[in-house]
Specification:
Layout: H1 2-21, E1 53-56, E2 59-63, H2 64-68, E3 73-77, H3 84-95, H4 97-102, E4 106-111, H5 115-125, E5 130-133, H6 138-142, E6 146-147, H7 151-160, H8 165-168, E7 176-177, E8 181-184, E9 190-194, H9 205-211
Parallel strand pairs: 3-4, 4-5
Antiparallel strand pairs: 1-2, 3-8, 6-7, 8-9
Amino acid sequence: MKMRKQFILTCCITLFTVTFFGPINLYAQPDRQFRSVEEVKGLRVGDTVPDFSAIGFNIAEFQLARALNQGPVVVVFYRGRWCPVCNRHISALQDSIALINKKGALLIAVSPEKPEYGAKTAEKTGATYALLYDKDYEIATKFDVLFQPDAATSNIYNAKLYADLKSVQSDDSQRLPVPATFIIGQDGVILWRHFNPDYRERATVTEILKNLP
């Protein structure tokens, strides 16, 4: 008798829900438009990088193919001027920019923040190399480093670090790049990479210099 009452109660609740809210899909998965950080893998050593171009606050236009005519290119992704770890990394690279250039390489850093915020990064870090604006996340997409943080993480970045992700980037999706580093040879092929979803782990200057041709 008890089981029969529970069954009748369940049926009544289901009928009420369907009547007022529509059919239920018990197996529906969360609707996720963009990938999580666990799903992005980054381009691998040996992959060819598609050509791209971008502007920055301190450069009228950068084009990868043109830069590779002069030598290898080191591409560093960073999250934005609001990220303390990024700022320390950008600053450390600036401290050794002469050693990187001595190897015949060009260093660029790429962020989804608009150029005026790149200027704020340069002010904080002293960076003199190109800080590029990844409009519409085109570059991060080509390198397979683009992901969407979960809502709780985005809220922390915006509330605690004043990231203001919806306003300073191409759209309000609040997507970010894994802060990876890639060395691209003059043939457009990746020679070395540092890719770690843990934003605290960054490529060191020593590693970059060691792996430049």
